[in-house]
Amino acid sequence: MVEKPAIVKELAQVVDPEVGVSITEMDLVDDVTISPEGVVSIGFHLTAPFCPPMFALEIAQDIKKRVSALEGVKDVKITMTGHFMAEEINRRVNTAPTANA
After folding, report:
1. In this predicted model, what pLDDT tens digit does every residue of 37-82 receive, in sequence order?
2. Is 100 exposed, middle or buried, given 0-12, 13-18 or 19+ CB atoms closer than 10 A?
């Protein structure tokens, strides 16, 4: 089973393309939970509600790709909040296939 420190280590590799700083360094990760079945749920926000949608989607996809590749992870659910296109971006990233699918 995957553990939270391994997930946080992967999240530290996710960089905001606009500012070039890790999302963990900017304290943008709000929540990381792991179900007994290996489903990881990650909540995060961005630095601004009007961050360009292509960057917001890129960050969400990078989170999902990196965490999905960890051993023991069966699925990753992303919840971005506070962005004007959060609902659409969450839908897109959560309906995309994962690395383990």
Report:
1. 999 999 999 999 999 999 999 999 999 999 999 999 999 999 999 9
2. middle
> What pTM was computed for the model?
0.93
Question: What's the distance, Cα to Cα, between the start and end of the chain in Å?
Answer: 17
Given a contact cutoff of 8 angstroms between Cβ atoms, the answer to whether 83 and 49 are in contact is yes
Domains and CATH numbers, the chain: 4-95 (3.30.300.130)
In contact, 58 and 45? CB cutoff 8 Å: no
Sequential DSSP letters for 33-77: EE-TTSEEEEEEE-S-TT--HHHHHHHHHHHHHHHHTSTT--EEE
